[in-house]
Amino acid sequence: MDPAGPFALATMSGMGLLVRDFRADDFETLWRIDQECFPPGISYSRQELKLYIRRRGTLTIVADSEGEIAGFIVAHNGPTGHVITIDVVGKARRSGVGSLLLEAAETRLQAAGSRSVGLETAVDNVGALSFYKRHGYSVVGTCSRYYSNGVDALVMRKELPVRDKGAELRPIDQS
C-alpha cells in the first residue's frame, strides 16, 4: 500500500472517523481549529501554518468525522521526526482522536525512516504533557521563551520501535 493514502478507520462515539491526508481545501478549517486550540503567541498565523504544511518532508493528517474535521496533526520526517502541532476540536477531545492522529503520524514517520519523534509543548500545558507521557514521550529538556508570548517549552522525545522490514501498512477497505 502507498503510505501516503488513507490508512486508518476507527470509531468515535459511534460515528465513523476517517484518518486521511490533508487536502488543500482543508486549510482554512485547520487554521481555525488551531486558533481555537491554542492561545495567541502559541497558535500559528495563517502564513506559519501554511509554511509548515507545505514544507518538504511534512505530513499533515486529518481526522474526518462524516465530513467534519475533528482534528489534525502536522509532523516532519527525518532521523528524528518532529510533531509540529496536534489539534483536536473541543467536542472531540478525550474521545481518542488525538491518540489516533499521534499513532498514525508515528507510523508514517517510522515508515519514512524516523527512529524517534520529538516535540515541544508549553510548560503550562498540563493536559498536553499528560497526553504525551501516556504515549511514551519523556521530557528531555526545556527551551526558554520558546513561544512568541514568552512561555517556555518542554522538549519531549519518544524512541520508535524498530520496524520489521517485512511489515507493511494494511490498506483500508474503501468500499
Strands ordered across the widest β-sheet:
1-2-3-4-5-6-8-7
Strand composition percent: 25-35%
CATH topology grouping of one domain = Aminopeptidase
State the helical fraction.
Answer: 25-40%
* Span of the ends, CA to CA: 16 Å
The H-level CATH homologous superfamily of one domain, spelled out, is: Gcn5-related N-acetyltransferase (GNAT)
Largest sheet: 8 strands, mixed
In short:
This protein is 25% helix and 33% strand.
Features:
eight-stranded mixed beta sheet; Aminopeptidase; 175 residues; 25% helix; alpha+beta
Descriptive account of the structure:
The structure is a single chain. The chain is α+β, with helices and mostly antiparallel strands and 175 residues long. It has a domain at 8-115: Gcn5-related N-acetyltransferase (GNAT) (Aminopeptidase), CATH 3.40.630. Helix content is 25%, strand content 33%. It contains four helices and eight strands. It has helices at 27-37, 46-54, 97-111, 126-134, and strands at residues 8-12, 15-21, 58-65, 68-76, 80-88, 116-122, 138-143, 153-159. It has an eight-stranded mixed β-sheet with strand order 1-2-3-4-5-6-8-7. β4 and β5 form a beta hairpin. The radius of gyration is 16 Å and the shape is globular. The model is unreliable at 1-14 and 171-175 (pLDDT under 50).
